[in-house]
Amino acid sequence: MAYNLLKGKKGIIFGALDENSIAWKVAEKVHEEGGSFVLTNAPIALRMGKIKELAEKTGAELIPADATKIEDLENLVEKATEVLGGKLDFVLHSIGMSVNVRKGNHYTDMNYDFTTKGWDISAVSFHKTMQTLYKKDAMNEWGSIVALTYMAAQRVFPDYNDMADNKAYLESIARSFGYFFGSEKKVRVNTISQSPTPTTAGQGVKGFDGFIAYADKMSPLGNATADECADYTLTLFSDLTKKVTLQNLYNDGGFSNMGVSQQVMDTFMKEEDS
Ligand SMILES: NC(=O)c1ccc[n+]([C@@H]2O[C@H](COP(=O)([O-])OP(=O)(O)OC[C@H]3O[C@@H](n4cnc5c(N)ncnc54)[C@H](O)[C@@H]3O)[C@@H](O)[C@H]2O)c1
């Protein structure tokens, strides 16, 4: 259902890789709600080709940028404001990658070059993006910047590995930069802490199927889907949430406040009975 929530708003969406990506769903829904945007991803992701389909479907320009490279981000912000014909109202940072996870390195046996690279991609890139937008004064007043995160920033999920630390850093950047963006430019900055979701990045986590099933059984409303995450993101881009800033907002069906659920209890009771 479209409400014209983002009519006339302009922005940049990072991180759509394929139709499972959370950023892909956000792009589709922003388009439905009347917003226009530039799509961006790392050059290698653009070469995979899928994102071109999304660009055609949503009438978006595609501008490659490695989010760890300042010169790429500067080029992106300059071109995006040119193509869209003015300053931006929204930016989605939907980027995450751990090289240690990819290479199967255990948390207690990290390769620190990989740790640094994953931290740069997953966390510092958010600072680099905001610093570029800030220095170029590229955001409109009452604009909104959102990054995606996961609850492993607060609680232990052993197989989430160094991504847990990266997410904690990312959430802290949202608060620290959000202060300056808010007080000096009236721009809000928030993170959405999403349920486990079957995407390329999500499925990279060891034992993901168990992880997602457990979270679903623990959450009174069940796991939030990528579509539902996109809906929530849209509310934060809209004018209906103007004074929400410096927040880490859970879109997780209630998981983050649960201790145990009946469904999870039942699993253990059965094991005990048999
Ligand atoms: N899937 C989940 O379970 C889940 C849960 C909570 C939060 N998140 C977060 O949501 C965000 C989006 O992930 P997703 O699940 O949609 O997976 P995804 O794999 O579809 O998206 C990750 C994106 O990051 C991009 N990326 C990687 N390196 C980059 C770089 N150097 N420069 C620019 N882009 C780069 C990838 O190309 C990809 O498009 C991530 O921050 C992820 O941590 C995911």
UniProtKB/TrEMBL annotation:
Alphabetized Gene3D superfamilies for the sequence: NAD(P)-binding Rossmann-like Domain (3.40.50.720)
Catalysis performed (reactions): a 2,3-saturated acyl-[ACP] + NAD(+) = a (2E)-enoyl-[ACP] + NADH + H(+)
Molecular function per GO: enoyl-[acyl-carrier-protein] reductase (NADH) activity
Alphabetized UniProt keyword annotations: Fatty acid biosynthesis, Fatty acid metabolism, Lipid biosynthesis, Lipid metabolism, NAD, Oxidoreductase
GO terms, biological process: fatty acid biosynthetic process
The EC number(s) this enzyme carries: 1.3.1.9
Location of the active site: 150, 160
Pathway: Lipid metabolism; fatty acid biosynthesis
Pfam families: adh_short_C2
Membership in a protein family: Belongs to the short-chain dehydrogenases/reductases (SDR) family. FabI subfamily.
Listed PANTHER family: ENOYL-[ACYL-CARRIER-PROTEIN] REDUCTASE, ENOYL-[ACYL-CARRIER-PROTEIN] REDUCTASE [NADH], CHLOROPLASTIC
Entry protein name: Enoyl-[acyl-carrier-protein] reductase [NADH]
Organism, scientific name: Haloflavibacter putidus
Lineage of the species this protein comes from: Bacteria, Pseudomonadati, Bacteroidota, Flavobacteriia, Flavobacteriales
